[in-house]
Write a structure and sequence with these properties.
Bound molecules: tryptophan
Shape: globular
């Protein structure tokens, strides 16, 4: 028997799923994380590897996640339990769901801190302190914020309250509406930023930097750069932790998974590239370093807003929309856990959301303290914020992705995926199956193993 609805509610229309999944995918990952990570690894070559990962690993895995979610119609843990028992496979596969919950906690805890920076910048942009600002001053304003644990805590708390509020109300109400208007608005503003950067900044330099790959740029850090490009693809597409799986579980039976996936992944990639094109012209025109790290957009965009006419208003609007983009992403990080608490422990949505939110909030405090009071506390050479970011994007999400790929390609019956994807037994289905069975698991495993030096140890790297 196929279950055709979820107890947690359903997307009201097909468009609602696209909006929600895009809302999950497009967020700080595109506008904050993509530019600074690309900058850390020298630009073009990183971007090229990133795009290749989206096309050959990201898209097939996104289709697989949506497919599994829609077949299971529950939280990722219980979806896996159902699919595993239907196929007579080992219960070990539920680990996938548990790993996803862990990733969700870790990601959301630092994500909320960065979203807090964004919230703080809404008010900075409005106050006029960016007027005619230079790079040094922009850096000082940013450092001033990150060195103050109390302010960081206040913004982190406000953001987590916002997330819990929406998750507590349920996916269909609120979330759908927010995405429908705010995502197009963000997209429009980003376009305006690119146009501004094109005439005020070093646009040619930025184009070359981002789109003329030169592998010498990796400067002996190729293993790490490729790992980070792959990790960025997982992070940006919201893959490998069950967020897209649970969104798929609210998707109507007749919707085309392949088409939806291509639209969502396409928009996500476009937004990331536009963010790069808005930021790097300003970076180069002002003599800033592309590899200045997580503060990159907070140190460059204020310069643009400070110079352009109406920059105060425009900057405020931009950061407001970025907060919304972060909000619609953060929701999807909490949803798998909340759905599980409701299903298994019989919690109300409200109680589940508050409990999940509190846990994340506590973890987030460790992240924000790692920027100041706990700057000396290092685990594997990193502070908590960097550590959570690195471990989730570059290890847990790809690992989750491999498991999803192997399960969908090797354990789930061919007839089941054929039936669920509803794309006919033609070229596209066969291509998907090839990518999900061989390309994605092998490529991800090689990158992961290579990064931990295993291949070197056994003499292959
Ligand atoms: N993709 C989001 C962004 O780019 C972040 C995000 C939301 C995410 N849900 C996720 C990342 C699930 C990994 C897994 O901002």
């Amino acid at each position: 028997m196929t279950v055709t609805t979820s107890i947690h509610g359903m997307w009201s229309t097909r468009l609602a799923f696209i909006l929600a999944a895009t809302g999950s995918a497009v967020g700080l990952g595109n506008i904050w994380r993509f530019p600074y990570t690309a900058g850390e690894y020298g630009g073009g070559a990183f971007v090229l590897v990133y795009l290749a990962c989206v096309a050959t690993i990201g898209i097939p895995i996104m289709m697989a996640e949506i497919m599994l979610g829609r077949r299971g119609r529950q939280s990722p843990i219980n979806t896996m339990r159902t699919l595993v028992s239907q196929g007579g496979h080992s219960p070990v596969w539920q680990l996938l769901g548990w790993m996803g919950i862990l990733s969700g906690f870790l990601i959301l805890s630092f994500y909320s801190v960065i979203a807090g920076w964004t919230l703080a910048y809404v008010f900075r942009a409005g106050s006029g302190i960016f007027d005619a600002i230079d790079a040094t001053r922009a850096g000082a304003i940013f450092a001033d914020l990150t060195s103050d644990p109390e302010r960081l805590l206040a913004w982190h708390t406000i953001f987590m309250v916002l997330v819990v509020l929406v998750v507590a109300r349920g996916v269909a109400s609120g979330l759908e509406k927010a995405v429908r208007y705010l995502m197009p608005a963000l997209f429009f503003l980003l376009l305006v930023m690119v146009l501004y950067a094109a005439q005020a900044g070093d646009f040619g330099g930025a184009m070359t930097y981002l789109f003329a790959p030169d592998f010498a740029e990796f400067q002996g850090k190729a293993d790490e750069a490729i790992l980070s490009a792959m990790g960025q693809a997982f992070f940006s597409l919201s893959l490998g932790m069950g967020a897209i799986m649970i969104y798929g579980s609210y998707l109507k039976q007749e919707a085309s998974i392949a088409r939806n996936t291509v639209i969502v992944a396409g928009m996500d990639t476009l937004v990331a590239l536009l963010a790069g094109l808005a930021i790097f012209p300003i970076v180069f025109a002002n003599g800033l370093a592309p590899d200045s790290g997580p503060g990159l957009i907070f140190q460059t965009l204020p310069i643009a807003f400070g110079e352009m006419p109406g920059g105060g208003l425009f900057g405020t609007l931009f950061f407001v929309l970025l907060v919304f983009a972060a909000w619609t992403s953060a929701i999807s990080l909490l949803e798998p856990l909340v759905a599980w608490l409701v299903e298994n422990l019989g919690f109300s949505r409200v109680r589940a959301s508050v409990l999940g939110g509190l846990t994340v909030w506590l973890l987030g405090i460790a992240c924000l303290l790692s920027l100041n009071l706990w700057a000396d506390v290092r685990v594997f050479g990193k502070g908590f914020l960097d550590l959570f970011d690195f471990v989730t994007a570059n290890v847990l999400l790809p690992l989750g992705g491999v498991l999803i790929a192997v399960f969908s390609g090797w354990l789930l019956a061919r007839s089941s995926s054929l039936d669920e994807l509803r794309m006919g037994d033609g070229l596209s289905y066969r291509l998907w199956r090839l990518l999900i069975r061989f390309v994605a698991p092998v490529a991800v495993s090689i990158v992961l193993l290579n990064a931990i030096g295993v291949l070197k140890l056994i003499g292959l790297g």
